[in-house]
Amino acid sequence: MKSVTIYDIAREANVSVATVSRVLNNSAPVKESTRRRIMEIIERNRFQPNALARSLLKKETGTIAMILPDITNPFFPEVFWGAENMGRELGYTFFLCDSAGDYKRESEYLGILRERRVDGIIFLGGRINVANCPSDLVQEVVDLSVHTPVVLVNGQLAGSGLHRIFTDEAKGAEMVVRHLIELGHRDIAFLGGLEYMSTTRVKIRAVRKVLKEHGLELAPDRIKYGDFSIQAGKTLMDELLASPRRPTAVICVNDFTAVGAIKSASEHGLGIPDDISITGFDGTPLSEAVIPELTTVSQNAYELGKLAVESLHKLINGGKVKKQTVLEPRLIVRKSTGPAKKVC
Amino acid sequence: MKSVTIYDIAREANVSVATVSRVLNNSAPVKESTRRRIMEIIERNRFQPNALARSLLKKETGTIAMILPDITNPFFPEVFWGAENMGRELGYTFFLCDSAGDYKRESEYLGILRERRVDGIIFLGGRINVANCPSDLVQEVVDLSVHTPVVLVNGQLAGSGLHRIFTDEAKGAEMVVRHLIELGHRDIAFLGGLEYMSTTRVKIRAVRKVLKEHGLELAPDRIKYGDFSIQAGKTLMDELLASPRRPTAVICVNDFTAVGAIKSASEHGLGIPDDISITGFDGTPLSEAVIPELTTVSQNAYELGKLAVESLHKLINGGKVKKQTVLEPRLIVRKSTGPAKKVC
DNA sequence: TTGAAAGCGCTAACAG
DNA sequence: CTGTTAGCGCTTTCAA
């Protein structure tokens, strides 16, 4: 299955490969008549230049890789979609690497992507979301970033100086608490999230802060750690409702756990938001699909992806880019939150 | 930013590049002592062979591309995840191309992937799901498949002879209808899906068939076409409920529209499944997240992706592969379906 | 067990 | 406007 090369075209057109290359890339003037002749031959043979050969020479591949922790979590497809749309216009094709949040897989992919000479990497999840990332894992990314631009989305690598794009999650959490307090809630709980992940910590810290401003606090028994799944939300809510005195509002670490919490509450015969208010986080499509529709915080996932590619593109072309781009979260008030019941 | 090459390693180790290549690939015996020396130098310099150069020579890139119509539809991430897990073990890295179901984008990507010399392509959505695909679009894929193995997932290209992996949607739809009929439903409606897409047609045909077996029929006013979104499900259900006599059960083209239908029904004060039964299709995580949990048909999305890669891998290596692999659908009975109300 | 050398398909000086 | 030629970084005969 010999594939046709630029030489075949050149021979057939009685010109040199250089000329063919020129018409291919419009890199230099070519006589109109020969250009047309060459084009015709190219099309007739369905010739497509070999991107590998070109990349080898030009030292750029026109590829960007996105490493993310879970493509089945609806937040991430949204980010990818934003990135791809932006990237497509700029001529990039995307590798997608699902690390499952596993450091080993991340490292594995980092190596592969380096071999494949991707032009840039967008990194989400896993090591950039833990509170204390082992320094060798940080170093690995930093080393890579010397040759390959890296942008961290919604995370960080302490002391790495890597470029970051993220939503201000603390502010988002604050907005949720304020919203709840305005509705009269005084006994608020926090549900879900792994304790060692920064996304969990940041939110809890923010909740505490606002609560404190109002003379309230987040008691230890009002925090239930778990992972970020629907199942976790359900289990954790079950636990919470097993206690004698239940909170009037529950802030969930993400939309998934909120959905689980809703299910649990429903099963316990509680009305939402009449008996208990529940909030999500991320603003995934899921938050709109569920009944009642979730009050949540939009992270502008699409925008996150788009901006990541924009930054990466500038970085790739040696431009100057802000080290940090912070997106404002947006509180979306829907049906899952309501006034606190006066009687408890 | 000169990156280190096999020459740099060779020079430092006082051997030829051939020897370095040999230790890199274990392609020929190398004296143990020199192997170790070379390895040491490789590691010290953090040398990583350039996959582009290697691919150019070997005519294989170790990449697979997946073209799909909508990564934000939870069905597709599941397929991707299955594919990636299988592919990773086999040494493949994945390009992900979201075509948005647009033929133009599909063509664009097809071209790009050919240039990039991907080893194989997994094609979903868009042109392979329409009832009558223009022959030039079919031809385009067929032409490509001459050089690059292509596997069609849940779709087909009439007369193309391309390899296919798909769930038996007709059987799935039949299972749903039988389930509903057993529950005593006699007036059943079908909701959602674009009329010209085969996935819609196949299901409607199957519904009709089973209905007919029971002396029932699917009247024209019991079919509401739309797209595959939550919004469509809602709108369509609104329409359906606006009619004087409402059906006792509604079969939705996918989980998304079912969720929309549920929302609409709830807003109309209908209890599910007490007043009306609603079914989804696909068995996405969403179907479990919603309240009430959706009775749906699992398409084994993960398995679909996994099998696609398996087939592709064999195809790439010149093996023989069954032209068609059919997966059995699985009816998942949950809370959104119940006995038909005797009074209507 | 090792080295020399010929490409893989393309681009980019450089020289007409 | 066009051709010649030297690589990009690697693998693989063919010889030694």
Tell me what you see in this structure.
- With 344 residues, chain A is an alpha/beta fold.
- Chain A has 3 domains: 6-57, 434 Repressor (Amino-terminal Domain); 63-168 and 300-329, 3-Layer(aba) Sandwich (Rossmann fold), CATH 3.40.50; 169-298, Rossmann fold (3-Layer(aba) Sandwich).
- Helix content of chain A is 45%, strand content 14%.
- Chain A is built from 13 helices and 12 strands.
- In chain A, the strands form 3 sheets. A 6-stranded parallel sheet of chain A has the order 2-1-3-4-5-11, with helices on both faces. In chain A, strands 7-6-8-9 form a 4-stranded parallel sheet.
- In chain A, β8, α11 (255-267) and β9 (277-279) form a beta-alpha-beta unit.
- The longest helix of chain A is centred in the middle third of the chain and has 16 residues, at 198-213.
- Chain A is elongated and about 90 Å long.
- Chain A starts with 5 loop residues before the first helix and ends in a 12-residue tail after the last strand.
- In chain A, 49% of the residues are buried.
- Chains A and B meet through α4, α5, β2, α6 and α7 of A and α4, α5, β2, α6 and α7 of B.
- The structure holds a DNA duplex (16 and 16 nucleotides).
